Amino acid sequence: MQDLKTDVLVIGAGPAGSMTAKWAAKQGAHVLVIEKRQEIGSPVRCGEGMSKDWLPEVGIKPGKWINLEVEGARIFAPNETVFEINEKSAGNEVGYVVERDGFDKALAIDAANAGAEFLLKTAAVGVLKDGGRVVGARVKQFGEPFEIRAKVTIAADGFESQVGRWAGLSTNISTRDMDSCLQYRMTNVDCDTRYCDFYLGKIAPGGYVWIFPKDQGLANVGIGVQLSKITGMAEARKYLDDWIAKHPAYAKGKKIDMVGGGVSISPPVKQSAADGIMIVGDAARMIDPLTGGGIANGCIAGKICGTVAANSVHAGDFSKAFLDRYDRGWRARLEEKLYRNWLAKEKLCTLSDEIFNKLVDALSTVHLQKLSVHNILKAVRDKHPEITQEFAEFL
């Protein structure tokens, strides 16, 4: 392979990477995307649920990658009292259930149609620097090393991101801010295709069990468990298998697929830009700490990132001072909710099953049009005033 040059180098072809590439290319930058895998979108490591209101904001049109459109979500307490909520208020994981590999490919097609170029089976193995500024990456394709020099480099290399760390950006994360996740795709189950279901309590310490229906009789059944509360993936699997065994609608099912991996449930990174580089999506800890969903946030930040990258190229200014326009932009759009949900996650991880039962019981008796701290606390105070003190810090 010969060394290459480009305006914008995007490392990683997930949703955040492809969205960054699309918006940088649309605004006239020459964009090259590298992806370490041979196929974009595979293997899938995702529950495959997403909300839909944000799609027009970043220019995504619904496509064949949608399996189902659901009405909302059901939240189950440990005693299986249930609280139903419509999709508009249910968060970033409810609205569509999708084929994630098809979704990722559709975003890559959009980026390519906008002018971005892709190199598959190409892994970054280090960054190039000139006087402290990142000027590209050292990469390998089929074992052959070469360099890609870029005016702006984008680290979109996911939860396990190394590129940001190589560039000097802190992406450190504690075990209490990580979930170990495991998911089966199961057939011959009795799932309700109207809802995405979430089960809370000690059945999934620090996390939850989810059911995302794919079709009649077909669903993703998964679990996220706070890493600090278990010894490893085998323990997460045992929690999930135990839950399935106790629920006849799923115990009779057949497992036809299994995926696992880590998910950050942390606050976002403190710094997302430096001279010549920006970090976006899961790599920048933009996953919602409460739900573990990151597709919407990654795509929204990707549009901002791509726009700033193109503007940087046109201005001939690749300094941190210029690229911090991206940092300010995504924080204005996303940071408040990310921090608020991290605080909520921290609290929920301390609650007993008894408190969860009372919380869901309170919510199940009212018809909330909008989930907010005020509305939730009012419902709790009216039904179970004795536990209101548990949530006083959110007042």
What value does the average pLDDT take? Answer: 92
User: How many angstroms separate the termini?
Assistant: 59 Å
Unreliable spans: none
CATH-assigned homologous superfamily of the largest domain: FAD/NAD(P)-binding domain
Return the CATH class of the largest domain.
Alpha Beta
SSE series: EHEEHEEEEHEEEEHEEEEHHEEEHHHH
Work out the helicity level. Answer: 25-40%
**CATH architect. name of the largest domain:** 3-Layer(bba) Sandwich
Number of helices: 10
What is the overall shape? Answer: globular
Our estimate of the beta-strand percent is 25-35%
Radius of gyration: 21 Å
Structure description:
- Helix 1 (15-26) runs parallel beside helix 7 (295-315) and helix 9 crosses helix 10.
- Strands 1, 2, 8, 9, 10, 11, 17 and 18 form an eight-stranded mixed beta sheet that branches.
- The chain has three domains: 4-46 and 101-173 and 266-344, FAD/NAD(P)-binding domain; 175-264, D-Amino Acid Oxidase, Chain A, domain 2 (2-Layer Sandwich); 347-394, no CATH class.
- The chain has 395 residues and is of the alpha/beta class.
- 32% of the residues lie in helices and 28% in strands.
- It has helices spanning 15-26, 55-58, 100-114, 163-166, 233-245, 248-251, 295-315, 320-348, 353-364, 373-383; strands at 4-11, 31-34, 49-50, 66-69, 72-76, 82-86, 96-98, 117-119, 122-130, 133-141, 144-155, 178-187, 195-199, 208-215, 218-226, 254-264, 273-274, 277-279.
